[in-house]
């Protein structure tokens, strides 16, 4: 042991302590769950009044808020009176950041985080922690809990705007009908149908979600141009579409299940149809932190994983498809256009796509316009 050891430990602790702490992350989530930012709108509020409004113990609530104040979330302008500051404002209902829904312990976002209490189980067994923590596989648990399912759809709809943005990169000319497989409440279809008046669509998802999608599209005057199929995408899919879209679906599933989903799309698309895969990452070097975190989240929740372009191409090949073109989007999504092997013209792939050693590094710097 050297005389420098304590200072070395101190430096290491500065790195380890923030990532090891559970007190502050849980306090933020409790504040979101109780709706404290909403209750403090306007002037500072006495802690006793806050406790009465949200059904909490005043002493315990005060201790938690003082801890958060020490970390820059909320303010205490006078002893015992608390107010919203800049960071705390993000926790208000209706804020565009959507943080309250994401952190609410009674909703999907908070439950997703609580599933990490079973991470040791996942690391030891390779199986999802969700099953261990909540007593049922993720999708079955979601289907049995309507309020949790609604919360899931709400959070997914926030991300669907990015998928809809990715869909703008695709050339829809000549497409008569698009089938959005696992399309949630229809955010992608709303964007595509709104931009292409002659296009027709089919939304495929579980029945409760499809009904919410029907209302979402009806509010935009688009439901008359869309058919709705409440079903599992492991069952045969509606035929008649020229394009079948999987928008951020495959990363939820294991390789085996992802191939099953792709096969269903390939069957429905037939020899002349196309399958479009939209995912958040094209390679582990695009954003290594986000890639690693999301891959772990998918494993803990449902046994899924993040993948590179090469990984998705391999899954497509198992399903009888070939990747005919790849394109990156400004927001970091990757689009893969897959066709039946018999469709694919013999010719070189687009530069910087599948032949790259990481299956996607450098992909987003240019556009591949040969097929997409």
TrEMBL record:
<feature type="domain" description="O-methyltransferase dimerisation">
    <location>
        <begin position="23"/>
        <end position="82"/>
    </location>
</feature>
<dbReference type="GO" id="GO:0046983">
    <property type="term" value="F:protein dimerization activity"/>
</dbReference>
<dbReference type="InterPro" id="IPR001077">
    <property type="entry name" value="COMT_C"/>
</dbReference>
<dbReference type="InterPro" id="IPR036388">
    <property type="entry name" value="WH-like_DNA-bd_sf"/>
</dbReference>
<keyword id="KW-0949">S-adenosyl-L-methionine</keyword>
<feature type="domain" description="O-methyltransferase C-terminal">
    <location>
        <begin position="118"/>
        <end position="321"/>
    </location>
</feature>
<keyword id="KW-0489">Methyltransferase</keyword>
<feature type="active site" description="Proton acceptor">
    <location>
        <position position="251"/>
    </location>
</feature>
<dbReference type="Pfam" id="PF08100">
    <property type="entry name" value="Dimerisation"/>
</dbReference>
<dbReference type="InterPro" id="IPR036390">
    <property type="entry name" value="WH_DNA-bd_sf"/>
</dbReference>
<dbReference type="GO" id="GO:0008171">
    <property type="term" value="F:O-methyltransferase activity"/>
</dbReference>
<dbReference type="InterPro" id="IPR016461">
    <property type="entry name" value="COMT-like"/>
</dbReference>
<protein>
    <submittedName>
        <fullName>O-methyltransferase</fullName>
    </submittedName>
</protein>
<dbReference type="Pfam" id="PF00891">
    <property type="entry name" value="Methyltransf_2"/>
</dbReference>
<dbReference type="InterPro" id="IPR012967">
    <property type="entry name" value="COMT_dimerisation"/>
</dbReference>
<dbReference type="GO" id="GO:0032259">
    <property type="term" value="P:methylation"/>
</dbReference>
<dbReference type="InterPro" id="IPR029063">
    <property type="entry name" value="SAM-dependent_MTases_sf"/>
</dbReference>
<keyword id="KW-0808">Transferase</keyword>
């Amino acid at each position: 042991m050297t005389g420098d050891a304590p200072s070395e430990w101190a430096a290491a602790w500065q790195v380890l302590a923030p990532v090891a702490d559970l007190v502050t992350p849980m306090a933020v989530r409790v504040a979101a769950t109780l709706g404290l930012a909403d209750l403090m709108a306007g002037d500072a509020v006495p802690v006793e009044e806050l406790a009465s409004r949200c059904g909490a113990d005043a002493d315990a609530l005060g201790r938690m808020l003082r801890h958060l104040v020490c970390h820059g979330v909320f303010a205490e302008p006078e002893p015992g009176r608390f107010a919203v500051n800049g960071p705390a404002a993000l926790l208000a209902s209706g804020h565009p950041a959507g943080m309250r829904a994401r952190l609410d312990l009674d909703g999907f976002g908070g439950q997703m985080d609580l599933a990490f209490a079973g991470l040791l189980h996942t690391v030891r067994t390779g199986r999802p922690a969700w099953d261990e923590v909540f007593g049922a596989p993720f999708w079955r648990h979601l289907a049995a809990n309507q309020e949790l399912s609604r919360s899931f759809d709400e959070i997914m709809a926030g991300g669907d705007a990015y998928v809809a943005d990715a869909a703008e990169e695709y050339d829809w000319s000549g497409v008569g009908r698009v089938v959005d497989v696992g399309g949630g409440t229809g955010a992608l279809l709303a964007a595509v149908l709104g931009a292409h008046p002659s296009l027709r669509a089919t939304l495929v998802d579980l029945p409760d979600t499809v009904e919410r999608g029907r209302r979402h599209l009806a509010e935009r005057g688009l439901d008359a141009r869309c058919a709705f199929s409440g079903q599992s995408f492991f069952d045969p899919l509606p035929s008649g579409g020229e394009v079948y879209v999987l928008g951020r679906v495959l990363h939820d599933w294991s390789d085996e299940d992802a191939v099953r989903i792709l096969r269903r799309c390939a069957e429905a698309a037939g020899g002349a149809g196309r399958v479009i895969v939209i995912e958040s990452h094209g390679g582990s070097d695009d954003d290594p932190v986000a890639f690693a975190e999301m891959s772990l989240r998918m494993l803990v929740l449902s046994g899924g994983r993040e993948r590179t372009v090469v990984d998705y191409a391999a899954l497509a090949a198992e399903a009888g498809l070939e990747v005919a073109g790849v394109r990156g989007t400004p927001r970091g999504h990757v689009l893969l256009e897959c066709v039946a092997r018999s469709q694919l013209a013999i010719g070189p792939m687009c530069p910087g796509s599948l032949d790259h050693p990481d299956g996607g590094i450098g992909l987003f710097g240019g556009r591949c316009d040969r097929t997409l």
